[in-house]
Amino acid sequence: MHLVSLSLAFLLSLVRILVHATSGAAILPSDTDVKFQIETGGNNNYFLRDALTTAQVLVSSSSSNASVRRVVVALPAGNTGALTYFLPLNLSDKLNVTLDNSTLRSTTEDFDNVGVQANLAFSQNATMGVTIVGAVRAMRDYVEGSGTMHEIFNYTVAHANSTSLRLHRQWINGTANGTFKGADLYLNILSDAQLNITLGNNGTFTPPTVNVIVQEGETGVIQMRVLTNESTIQGIDSGELFLPAGSPNQSDGLDTALKGLSNGTDVHAEQVSFLTFKDKFTAGGWRFLTYFGRDSMIALRFLMPLLTPNATETALGAVIERANSSGALCHEETIGDYASFVNIQNNQSELGNQPFYDYKMIDTDLYLIPTLAHYFLDLPQGRGRASAFLRRNASLQDGTYLELLNRTVQYNLALALPFRSTPNVTNLLSFRPGQPVGNWRDSNEGTGYGPIPFDVNVALVPANLRATARLARSGIIDNGAMVLRNTTTTLADLADAAASVWEEKAASFFEISINGSVAEERLQNYVAAANLSEALLSGTTATAGIEAGNTVNKIFYALSLMEDGSPVEVLNSDLGFALLYGSNVTQEYLQRVVEALQPFPRGLLTNIGMVVANPAYDSNTTNTEVLNRAAYHGTVVWSWQQGLMAAGIARQLGFCHSNASAIVDPNPAPLPKPSWCGNVTFVDSLVAAQTRLWTSIRGANDSIFTEVWTYSFNNSTNLFSPADLAIISPQGTESDAIQLWSYGFLGLLDPNGDTIR
């Protein structure tokens, strides 16, 4: 097997792939449950879910300056779809391809094929470029993999003439229950155009040339259909997903957050509903319309106060179902045709298209138990439901949910105990052997190539241990006797004791202190290297423990550690994990939060959001480029990370005083209150940091439910503007128009008690 490189030049000269006409397929009428449209990042995104299918269709916006027009269709059924590019036949002309939203609907075909169709309007003659039919993951690999695609994903031309084209992909593993599995893309001329098709002469290795010839002075209209006979999965509608507003005993804050969600009058309810299904939650569209464990659990932590018990337990059950025999939790589920490909690559072709479960992420294992504890012990809709939930029998493997959960409890405990005994760098949690990634910053560059991540070790391990102790003491899991070094203890006592060591010791390994003069020099150099204005370094308001200028050391926590324990000196947003998940957060830690929430590049805040990484202070200046504004986890804004920080600060301040109008998520305060609550000056500084954060968040309201955005900078105004990551990313990495964990903002109110929407 080899990789076939498909460049734009190649696609211009001989790649013109796709289409297939339809022979009068029947359209079954059905009520539309979900239908909405979002324009973002130079793309128009159309979403549909009805009784037959769920689909997202993306078409390059007419406002885009790109010469190439892209059409993407993504179906959660088998994570199947199609990707194709259209180019102007005359390269000096500008081509527009637009979708008529009124024609977007589900469609069926013989052999149980179900999918979506819509009419595309062509402004002028076009030629079809690179086309992929089948696995969405193969499409994603092409878009973000420098234009490479494995030849195993080639399609065949099943039908071609001047009015119709059908491109067919038969799955790698032939049949299921006697039925051929596959996907099809059809193009059918409706008016004012024709197809001029020249078939390749080398089987599937040379794609056909497909030209769309539009009648002079007219707009050509083509019906596009994408179908698969993968089983459609049933969605959760907004009425089943969200609690009703105005119910008795709801706090004012929760009632405010819920308005318009359960009755579907708020479009954001439809958007969340589109991503949720009766057997799992999906991460985002179009690139991640499949199961991701981490994304489901982080989204739950934000949204659980708003969700019905059945919706929450659907997501929790999906996580538990996919635990492996050791207790590790699944990061990503690969299904459909791409599962066959992965199994072949792993020398397990005998598995056919059995789903492949990815367990490489070390952080995913640590979210489940804190999420369960919060649901069953803190939220009204979860109380009293643990026993029945954990008695359920898993459907994807043998065992009850309780039996599977106990594996995860013991697995995480075993990983945490060595540091409890000997708190050194060696016993911190590191990425799995041979894996360059392992936490949410899942790109090689995301942690600055450091394999020992801050978030996992400082926040998630102790949070998991504290939650384990809570569940054990409550009787939800067995608090049986455990023997450690000839000493008998209970699970709860052991977990609490281990958590105390992690809370006390782990952060110190990541602490960085840079001489003030050196820090100021690095800032100056960074501003020049990043093509920013020196004006950004002036006028920063001094806050508790920090002064503008160079007289005070710059102290912050490293993004990660290298194998030898040396820090990656990158200021970062992962401070938020301990605020939302952790216990016993110290004033010293919160001081680092206050200092991080300063204007960029001294801190993380721009006028369009909080960047997730700031390499301005790093002595390793290569990270200025590694983590720049074109990097997926660089000086860019991830919406959910802002939500994490905002929710975390609200939780910590709520331990000192309760603002009933802004409380959506109940978080029981520790007893006694944190000692820093009595330091009025410090609390005021944390409140000021909260205000700065929300001002930053509201600077990009229109992007808040998308995945990630970058910036452009105006040196005249010294202001940042949101920019599309895909345009400047060297890998073509783009942002999903909707992302499940970004909708965590539905469960957040600003300090004034207002929603973000």
Description of the molecule:
This protein is an alpha+beta fold. It has three domains: 3-228, no CATH class; 362-509, no CATH class; 516-552 and 570-747, no CATH class. Helices cover 28% and strands 26% of the residues. The chain contains 20 helices and 36 strands. An eight-stranded antiparallel β-sheet has the order 2-3-4-5-6-9-15-14. A hairpin with a 2-residue loop joins strand 30 and strand 31.
User: What spatial order of strands do you see in the largest sheet?
Assistant: 2-3-4-5-6-9-15-14
Q: What's the story with the biggest beta sheet?
A: 8 strands, antiparallel
Distance between the termini: 49 Å
Beta-strand content bin: 25-35%
Unreliable spans: 1-31, 541-550
What structural class results from the helix and strand content?
A: alpha+beta
Rg result? 26 Å
Number of helical elements: 20
Percent helix:
25-40%
Task: Looking at this protein, list some descriptive labels.
757 residues; alpha+beta; 3 domains; eight-stranded antiparallel sheet; globular
Short description:
With 757 residues, the protein is of the alpha+beta class. The chain has 20 helices and 36 strands. The chain has 3 domains: 3-228, no CATH class; 362-509, no CATH class; 516-552 and 570-747, no CATH class.
Write the layout of secondary structure elements.
Elements: E1 3-5, H1 8-13, E2 32-40, E3 43-50, E4 54-60, E5 69-75, E6 80-88, E7 97-109, E8 113-122, E9 126-135, H2 136-144, E10 148-150, E11 156-160, E12 164-176, E13 179-191, E14 193-198, E15 209-214, E16 220-228, H3 238-241, H4 252-258, H5 267-274, E17 276-277, E18 280-285, E19 288-291, H6 293-303, H7 309-321, E20 332-334, H8 336-345, E21 356-358, H9 368-378, H10 386-390, H11 401-421, E22 452-453, H12 454-473, E23 481-484, E24 487-490, H13 491-505, E25 511-514, H14 516-529, E26 554-557, E27 560-561, E28 567-568, E29 571-572, H15 576-581, H16 587-596, E30 605-606, E31 609-610, E32 613-614, H17 623-626, E33 637-638, H18 639-654, H19 680-697, E34 708-714, E35 719-723, H20 725-728, E36 738-739
Antiparallel strand pairs: 1-10, 2-3, 3-4, 4-5, 5-6, 6-9, 7-8, 8-16, 9-15, 11-12, 12-13, 13-16, 14-15, 17-18, 18-19, 18-36, 20-21, 22-27, 23-24, 25-26, 27-28, 29-32, 30-31, 33-34, 34-35
Helix pairs in contact: 6-7, 9-12, 11-12, 11-13, 12-13, 16-19, 18-19
